Amino acid sequence: xxxxxxxxxxxxxxxxxxxxxxxxxxxxxxxxxxxxxxxxxxxxxxxxxxxxxxxxxxxxxxxxxxxxxxxxxxxxxxxxxxxxxxxxxxxxxxxxxxxxxxxxxxxxxxxxxxxxxxxxxxxxxxxxxxxxxxxxxxxxxxxxxxxxxxxxxxxxxxxxxxxxxxxxxxxxxxxxxxxxxxxxxxxxxxxxxxxxxxxxxxxxxxxxxxxxxxxxxxxxxxxxxxxxxxxxxxxxxxxxxxxxxxxxxxxxxxxxxxxxxxxxxxxxxxxxxxxxxxxxxxxxxxxxxxxxxxxxxxxxxxxxxxxxxxxxxxxxxxxxxxxxxxxxxxxxxxxxxxxxxxxxxxxxxxxxxxxxxxxxxxxxxxxxxxxxxxxxxxxxxxxxxxxxxxxxxxxxxxxxxxxxxxxxxxxxxxxxxxxxxxxxxxxxxxxxxxxxxxxxxxxxxxxxxxxxxxxxxxxxxxxxxxxxxxxxxxxxxxxxxxxxxxxxxxxxxxxxxxxxxxxxxxxxxxxxxxxxxxxxxxxxxxxxxxxxxxxxxxxxxxxxxxxxxxxxxxxxxxxxxxxxxxxxxxxxxxxxxxxxxxxxxxxxxxxxxxxxxxxxxxxxxxxxxxxxxxxxxxxxxxxxxxxxxxxxxxxxxxxxxxxxxxxxxxxxxxxxxxxxxxxxxxxxxxxxxxxxxxxxxxxxxxxxxxxxxxxxxxxxxxxxxxxxxxxxxxxxxxxxxxxxxxxxxxxxxxxxxxxxxxxxxxxxxxxxxxxxxxxxxxxxxxxxxxxxxxxxxxxxxxxxxxxxxxxxxxxxxxxxxxxxxxxxxxxxxxxxxxxxxxxxxxxxxxxxxxxxxxxxxxxxxx
Length: 846
Ligand SMILES: Nc1ncnc2c1ncn2[C@@H]1O[C@H](COP(=O)(O)OP(=O)(O)OP(=O)(O)O)[C@@H](O)[C@H]1O
Description:
The protein is 50% helix and 15% strand. Strands 1, 2, 3, 4, 5, 6, 7 and 8 form an eight-stranded mixed beta sheet that branches. It has an eight-stranded mixed beta sheet with strand order 9-22-21-20-10-17-19-18, sandwiched between helices. The protein starts with 9 loop residues before the first helix and ends with a helix. Keywords: ATP-binding, Cell inner membrane, Cell membrane, Magnesium, Membrane, Nucleotide-binding, Phosphoprotein, Translocase, Transmembrane, Transmembrane helix.
């Protein structure tokens, strides 16, 4: 970062930057942009395809394959070694190019939701400065920017003025606790506390600041930090679990084959290439390629058709797996464009004076805190009674902050007096009013009645105090006189009701977590077509202190199995706690929220989702951003996640059942026969054909029935499935072996090895094609649906199985043409196998 401009007083800093408190002119800003370049951090170093390919070697399957290839080379089995190393190279290259394509399309998508900053600019030297929203990339050194809650600091800035500013600078320091920052006008200021750095998030307060460094010169860019990777998703963990179970099995295979061969047939180390190729046959080596392709395709399709931006690719799997979605209310289910509905006095009758006090409070809070934009409730008040605040002199303001549900403005009152005007959540304001317990209860009930109409409610109170110079703090918000209530109407967001209905149909349970009044939230929930099973109020610190509870529940007690729960009056921590509680109870949880008070929950969830209009910091914390206002995109995103997970699960199901079956049959046949059931190079060639066909799974459309429930992959159930179907496959293989043996008068009479090898090669590829069709989605096929990419790939695989043995390639691989009678026998075995597979599928309810 440019180090010298940040020391000295604010004025010295502004002078050095050739700027002033009124900001730059448009012409000067344009000239500086041309000179300094866009305010974008240097692009993170994108690894080359070669580097990515080499990184692919660290994948467990690829590493094991490589080891097996090296072992084959070591025993001079060059054919086996060459085919295995070719497999490794193809898998690494496909994965690397897929990853690069995914990265490129993601970078383009991120620009759809790029941020803006509020900057003071003038048309010429004499013009009045105006606040503009400009793309963050257009900021230049010397620009004067405004910061408010929820903003991301757009560049390195020196604070000129600040009010109660706290920021999180974990992007830079890794420390997530908010740190206070304040402007200082000293010649030798503590620079760190009067500087804010690019990438920090404003938690509370506001500031006006001058940009001192942009683009590659910021501290963030200099630190070259990359965001911390999130812990792997439930789906990733399951895939990983299955992968490691297989890797262990694979490593056991060669020694087992060697030992069994030695014990039963007295074979020696010459069986090693065969043992190695059997282990290779077990590997789903295309898994990384298929995962990357499925995710990248789904993300690109979502962005193109639904304008949904997936910022972290694996989050798509989480989306597919969520069974609970927690939603914030204001700004997500409603538009957060409140309009004043009523202004009523303590007796419940209309009283315009209450609105007037609320508007004075809003005006001075806005003026004194210099927020870049007023909060929506304040904006609604000012829309109705804009000029009223100017009739007073503002003294101080205590704005709302995360966890603080009221705001106070202090203005000059009658001579020698200050007037405190407080507005906020009814419970919080009434708690600070001088009232009898019965009167407080009556007023709380009045507020609840208004809230039950679905309106948002603010209570207003005032206090007359002798004037003073000592600063005001929240401790001064006491002994207030209650003035009345102002209520607001906030429209439902477009598509909100429909998207909640879709989510329910998709088997996702929806809960609403809001900072608002329980009655308002319950009513909104009903208007959206959800009948809440329960409404809770998150306990306040004082509640908990009274009950002596050791750990805070935040309304996160057990949630009923069905139905929506509304948790109202949540602080940001309460929202995060509910989400973590649901995750701990075994749910996969999504969180949809738009505000600075949602950031903790967005980060705590398996997948955080933010609408486009969300605060910058919420968008930055989310994994998925909806670029359109319409919430119905969520349902499509969930379905896209399920689709890509279903494709990966189908691939795993098919490939593992089939591979396991082949390996078991090969092991058994290896022991029964006087020769190897297949040559190592044949095993590998067959494996290569199957792998190529399997790539079709990345392009498949799973049956609608597979998309109706969250996609969860449970390794134990999954391993049971592949063992069951693997056995069935082994039986089919051995039946072919039996047929061949019978036709040729017993195993030891099988002297034509080439015929045997060719027969088994063809049978293997045909059974694999059958498994691809039947274990993926037999029902659709049975209904006469179109074959789709997997259907075509299976047909091609079967054709290769029939065409290779009589071809010159077959001859090169040691195969020969098969007698026509064999094809008839094969058709009978395959027919029986298809029947057995279908029966097993129906019995298992797959
Ligand atoms: N400008 C304001 N002045 C006074 N009180 C406010 C103001 N803004 C919000 N509040 C009070 O603070 C409460 C909590 O606000 P918060 O922003 O946490 O949640 P919310 O916007 O009501 O709901 P959600 O969590 O669904 O976004 C509000 O319900 C309101 O009572």
